[in-house]
Design brief:
The complex is a heterodimer of chains A (392) and B (134). Chain A has 392 residues and is α/β, with parallel strands linked by helices. Chain A has 13 helices and eleven strands. Chain A has a nine-stranded mixed sheet, with helices on both faces. In chain A, strands 5-6 form a two-stranded antiparallel ribbon. The longest helix of chain A is centred in the N-terminal third of the chain and has 16 residues. Chain B is built from two helices and eight strands, in the order ααββββββββ. The chains are: A alpha/beta (392), B mainly beta (134). At the A-B interface, helix 4, helix 5 and strand 5 of A face strand 4, strand 5, strand 6 and strand 7 of B.
Chain lengths: 392, 134
């Protein structure tokens, strides 16, 4: 069964992203959810079921481990709350699961919300998580930036791209973020600053890495049949895809110069959406730039350019706000920051706003079809999710 | 302090101390760590227990500046082992400027960390110097 055109996004909400020391998990969840309720012209009691994306539960596992804490904070009724955790694809996968439930008719209206308090995670930081958690031996010494750096090293050895191309992505995303009042960083940077930043995991420097951030984002979805009843404009879900790869760091099938799961998830989503030429049919892309190399490799994985063609795609400025396929108009994870479970839902909000013409200074002309993409890597595998949205 | 588990170290002692991996009897794929289903052909529980080669070549690498060790950068490399299998580990006894794709390395048993009273040993890479007994 295809879910194309069966599900509508009728409201989105998003908190300010940042180091929000004075706000807790509850504050973030309530702010994002109620903004989405208001945008959708509905009341909280209209929500029949909820999907919650939280990757790293906080404060003694009480917040985000299950849906119970969210139901308590939002004072939801009897409807179910399902918690989703799937690496960095947590947000988009929460949305995907909610779409299936609405498309099959189990629920008419559902809430998707991603909430993450990165400042309160028990490991204190993601880097420290890699030191203290995980297998005691395998891959010990590797950090998240290091994991993506392995791909950069390999890609640079095979194709023409170099560190300058990563710096161009950082400059672009910082500029776009400077136009986004909800971004963690709202400051443009120059090319030299990005290029000469201190090293984090070679070849990735400081400006190749996104920050870890507090934030929440929400979307209200409903059956497309009733979408016109809410007296507002909406977008339609055109297709989704999720791929989980078994090819971890130890598997000899893993070529590192690209992410197989992104190719696979994109193929699933494009097939459902009926997209055959993404370079021309997609108007705007919110794509995973946890590190600049991730965005570079994703251009190829999503079919925005051919394999090995990312450097040219960047040099031609196709990915810029005024280019022919603007990528990360929000500023991406680089500027918005990365509250893991919230990120995918925030991206869906940005794409929705672009298609509805509500993206203010970041508005892309004639945005008809857009996509959100997440990818997460671990020592033992990877997962990627793609969601395609379009005008009604 | 890094997480460790005596039970886990005991279950995996042949992999981590003897450097054992699996060779699939159906398709011949050699892999580490061992698993119940062949990553290449999907055969279940049909493997030969083999000692992996302690020599190989760097497939890709990074130099980590954030991992808390006394001396940075810490070189991490994905190593394709001679005869099959891939291993991802820290490269020690190495000038970080020396590391390159294709560089021959050999594996050496080292202590990774002591935590919860257990010594955690496994294999680190170093630039290949001489013949290593296997």
């Amino acid at each position: 069964m295809s879910i194309k055109d069966r599900v509508a996004v009728i409201g989105v909400g998003c908190t300010k992203f940042g180091e929000l020391f004075d706000k807790g998990y509850e504050d973030l969840a309530v702010e994002a959810a109620f903004e989405a309720f208001a945008d959708a012209n509905i009341s909280p009691e209209d929500i029949e079921a909820t999907w919650l994306g939280t990757e790293m539960p906080s404060t003694g596992n009480s917040e985000g481990r299950t849906g119970a804490s969210l139901a308590n904070y939002l004072k939801l009724g009897e409807g179910p709350v399902t918690r989703v955790a799937n690496y960095c694809a947590t947000g988009t996968d929460s949305f995907r699961n909610a779409c299936f439930a609405v498309a099959c008719g189990a629920y008419k209206i559902a809430l998707v919300i991603g909430v993450e308090k990165m400042r309160d995670v028990e490991s204190r930081s993601l880097i420290n998580g890699y030191v203290e958690w995980g297998h005691p031996l395998y891959g010990k010494g590797n950090t998240l930036p290091g994991m993506f750096a392995l791909s950069a090293t390999r890609y640079f050895s095979q194709y023409e791209a170099k560190k300058e191309h990563l710096a161009k992505i950082a400059v672009k995303n910082h500029y776009n973020g400077s136009l986004n009042p909800k971004a963690h960083f709202q400051k443009a940077i120059d090319f030299e600053k990005a290029l000469k930043a201190p090293m984090v995991a070679e070849p990735l420097g400081l400006f190749d890495c996104c920050p870890t951030t507090d934030g929440a984002a929400a979307a209200v979805i409903c059956s497309a049949e009733i979408a016109a009843n809410f007296n507002k404009d909406y977008v339609l879900v055109k297709g989704t895809g999720l791929a989980t790869g078994r090819d971890g760091r130890f598997h000899q099938g893993n070529q590192f110069a690209g992410f197989q799961t992104t190719f696979q998830a994109a193929a699933q989503a494009y097939k459902e959406a009926g997209i055959t030429d993404p370079r021309r049919e997609i108007s705007v892309g919110e794509i995973h730039d946890c590190f600049t190399i991730t965005e570079l490799l994703t251009y190829e994985g999503l079919g925005f350019c051919e394999v090995g063609g990312a450097a040219r795609f960047i040099d031609e400025g196709t990915n810029l706000l005024d280019g022919s396929l603007p990528c990360n108009t929000s500023g991406g994870l680089k500027s918005c920051g990365h509250p893991i479970g919230a990120t995918g839902v925030r991206q869906i909000g940005e794409v929705t706003n672009q298609i509805l013409g509500r993206a203010d200074k970041r508005q892309v002309k004639n945005a008809r079809t857009g996509l959100a993409h997440n990818i997460g890597l671990g020592v033992c595998g990877e997962v990627a999710c793609v969601v395609v949205l379009g005008a009604k | 302090m890094p997480y460790t588990s005596f039970m886990l170290l005991d279950r995996q002692k042949r992999e981590n101390l003897n450097f054992h991996g699996n060779k699939c009897k159906s398709c011949g794929w050699v892999f580490f760590p061992k698993s119940r289903v062949c990553p290449e052909c999907g055969a279940k529980d049909d493997f030969e227990d083999i000692t992996l080669a302690r020599k190989g070549k760097v497939f890709t690498y990074t130099k980590e500046y954030l991992y808390p060790v006394p001396e940075t950068p810490m070189v991490m490399a994905v190593i394709d082992l001679d005869g099959g299998g891939r291993f991802f580990t820290h490269i020690t006894d190495c000038d970080p400027d020396q590391i390159a794709i294709g560089m021959p390395v050999e594996l050496t048993l080292r202590m990774f960390h002591k935590s919860d009273g257990f010594y955690n040993y496994s294999w680190k890479g170093r630039p290949a110097t001489q013949e290593v007994c296997s």
